[in-house]
Each structure stands twice: as structure tokens, then as C-alpha cells.
């Protein structure tokens, strides 16, 4: 993968392909990529070098009832953790149950399971210079 968008497209394509193969027809798909969401639902034009994969995804969407939701990256920590784990390891990584996750993945999943909120904090520098 050469860009994060290509990686996100491949992940979405793989998930939808899995759902179709296993007869899941009602799917809520969450992504922390607003760019990806807008390309797939045709709000934004797809760059020419990426056009093939989004078109494949759009064809799969016609075969299912899919709702695509944009979520903030804080709500997508487990997926990001697993993706980063896959990038860091040379061999293929598969996790089929809770115990197989690395300890940090289990911690993230437990936080989510217990509905402990992620807080997004934005700081602002206050200028105390007063020219009086």
C-alpha cells in the first residue's frame, strides 16, 4: 500500500467481500476516513489512480443494505491498533478471539466494551500580551 487511502480502501473492500461471502446483507460500516466515506457515497470525485477499488466497493454496496458512518479516530482505536500491528509484523496476523489480541488490544476493547468515553481535547494558546 502506498497511501493511507489505498489501505483504507483495501480494508473496506475486504470487509465487504467477507460480508457478501458469509451472507451478511445488513451492515453498519464505520470509518474514521471522511475522505473514504465521501468517495464511496459519491459526494467527492475519486482520484483517477484510485478509481478501480471504489467502483468495486460501490458494486458490492448494491448487493447489500449498508450504512456508512464517519467516526472520529478516537472511536476507532482498536482497528487502528490492529492495522498498526499488521504493519509492524512481517508475518500475517489474525485474531479470532479476545485472548489472541495483544494486551494493548484487549485494553482498548475493554475500554470500548465498558463504554468509557474517549475525550477529544483541543487546546488553545492564549496570548497574554496586552499593549496598553
What is this entry, summarized?
This protein is mainly alpha-helical and 132 residues long. The chain has helices at 4-21, 34-40, 52-61, 77-88, 103-113, and strands spanning 26-31, 65-70. The longest helix has 18 residues, at 4-21.
Q: What report would you give on this structure?
A:
The protein has 132 residues and is mainly α. The chain has 2 domains: 1-71; 74-120, no CATH class. Helix content is 44%, strand content 9%. It contains 5 helices and 2 strands. It has helices at 4-21, 34-40, 52-61, 77-88, 103-113, and strands at residues 26-31, 65-70. It has a two-stranded parallel ribbon. Helix 1 (4-21) packs parallel to helix 3 (52-61) and helix 4 (77-88) runs antiparallel to helix 5 (103-113). The radius of gyration is 19 Å and the shape is globular. The model has no long low-confidence stretch (mean pLDDT 82).
Taking strands numbered 1, 2, ... along the chain, how are they ordered across the largest sheet? 1-2
- Helix amount, in percent? 40-55%
Largest beta-sheet details: 2 strands, parallel
Apparent shape: globular
Residue stretches low in confidence (pLDDT < 50, at least 5 long) are none
**How many domains in all?**
2
Rounded to an integer in angstroms, the radius of gyration calculated over CA atoms is 19 Å
Regarding quaternary structure, what we see is: single chain
What is the distance, rounded to the nearest whole angstrom, between the alpha carbons of the first and last residues? 56 Å
Q: How many distinct beta strands?
A: 2
Strand content: 5-15%
User: SSE order in H/E notation?
Assistant: HEHHEHH
- Please count the helical segments: 5
Secondary-structure-based class equals mainly alpha
What number is the mean pLDDT? 82
